[in-house]
Amino acid sequence: MKTRQVLAICLLLGACASSQPVTQIDKDTYLLVASSRWHGNEGVALQGLQQADDWCRQRGRRTRVTGSERSDGVIGVMPPKVMLTFKCDPSP
Fold first, then answer.
1. Which of 49, 57, 15, 13 is nearest to 32 (CA)?
2. Neighbour tally for 8: CB within 10 Å
3. What pLDDT does residue 87 have?
4. pLDDT digits (tens, 9 = 90+) for 17-56
5. Sequence-distant contacts of 43-48: CB under 8 A, at least 24 apart
6. Residue 58 gets which letter from DSSP?
7. Distance between alpha carbon 12 and the CA centroid of its chain, in Å?
8. Which residues lie across from 31 on neighbouring strands?
9. pLDDT of residue 9
């Protein structure tokens, strides 16, 4: 595949999956909102969990989800979305 084609595919896929930056909402509680046109309802939930886990691991901690909400979205109009609240606990 040509370099331009690979770049175009990467940009296209990146535009279809998105997440807002992790936001601190309390002293030890964080919020992550993610959506994806490609992953479906279950996939976007897993994507959000992975992003929260990656965020905590970068800080040498482990993730504990404290709440979640999910919207199914509408095919072709609005992608499925997940909103996670989580804490980063000390690693054992």
1. 49
2. 11
3. 97
4. 456 789 999 988 999 998 877 666 678 888 899 999 999 9
5. 43/80, 44/70, 44/79, 44/80, 44/81, 44/82, 45/70, 45/82, 47/17, 47/19, 47/82, 48/19, 48/82, 48/83, 48/84
6. T
7. 17
8. 23, 85
9. 33
